[in-house]
């Protein structure tokens, strides 16, 4: 067993990993992630406490986010089979192992503290490169090199931890410097920011509160003429409410989408 010794925001990388692993063990899961099961079982952490406080709906939401990001990447690869995929805030994400088409080039970017654990647990396979930097250190644009075959960026569970001014500066910088690239990330509403922060706190990670909430993607497109909306989708859209889920999960799935508590935004830079 490997001790997961992380602090502040990097420690939250355990949440999506545990969620994907646990949902994968369910009957007929929305997402099956064998790599996540292997990694979760290899780490030493207070698993019961984290699972208890995430709730069934929380674990399902994190698995659904991965499922929707995977679908967007696969769709991009149908027209850009040799694309570069950049995974910002990689943590212990296992997307590469679910979507690899055998010809893509993949980059995982995260802070040195998080990447140290990733390198220990998941040595980079062929066509995968690790970048130990902050997403705000734009020298990573040079690191990924030639993107003439297309660039798709995914940012799972990262942007809500930053203030809006920082998010705006980040997205407008990328829009200006990476024309034709596409980007997908999850957001939460101002109300959702409070609710989700409370759940993170109860999971023993109270030093990493969310700071940014948004409901309308048009606000982001207003930041720059180079940002074009591709799609904005509520988390549980097209996700069936299975009888195996608890009534509470059914209720929270409906409330989430009714009030746009969590969404997936997909943009193209033009």
**What fraction strand?**
15-25%
Biggest sheet architecture: 7 strands, mixed
**How many helix segments?**
10
Q: Find the CATH superfamily.
A: Vaccinia Virus protein VP39
Verbal overview:
The structure is a single chain. Helices cover 43% and strands 18% of the residues. With 270 residues, the chain is of the alpha/beta class. It has a single domain, classed as Vaccinia Virus protein VP39 (Rossmann fold). The chain has a seven-stranded mixed β-sheet with strand order 5-4-3-6-7-9-8, with helices on both faces. A two-stranded parallel ribbon has the order 1-2. Helix 7 links the parallel strand 6 and strand 7. The longest helix has 33 residues. The N and C termini lie far apart (47 Å).
